Amino acid sequence: MASQSSRASRFRSDAKELLCGHGEKPILQTSSTKDNPGRRFWGCVYYEVQDVCDFFRWADPEPGGVQQEVEFARNRRKITKLKARLKELETKLWVVAALCFAGWVGFLFLFLQNHYNLKHPNGMHLGYR
After folding, report:
1. Rounded mean pLDDT of 60-74?
2. Band of the pLDDT at 2, cuts 50, 70, 90?
3. 56-58 and 40-43: which strand pairing?
4. What is the DSSP secondary-structure string of 29-81?
């Protein structure tokens, strides 16, 4: 959250220093090209409206390099934590499944025992009288 606000303030301060060929402050836009999808840049306020002065400057740091390595490292740590959490949850699921199975076996045993005792109330078993 703090990095987003510092990034936003950096963008605003960059815009104050920049002026396009028309003497206007450029506006922050987002690239939709195949080579730079989602990358932010400063462009002329009259872009796609009238005579453009071809003002252009990237607002985001160049992809790759140190920034990309930091992001990869952070993502690797996140993946490792998520895998550990997944393994923990899978173990808990197996324990719950085993307890449910044991509960059903116990229930079935008690049910059948009660059913057998109802048919043979005097304790006579297996045809002995």
Report:
1. 76
2. very low
3. antiparallel
4. EE--SSSSTT-EEEE-TTTTTS-----EEE-SPPSSHHHHHHHHHHHHHHHHH
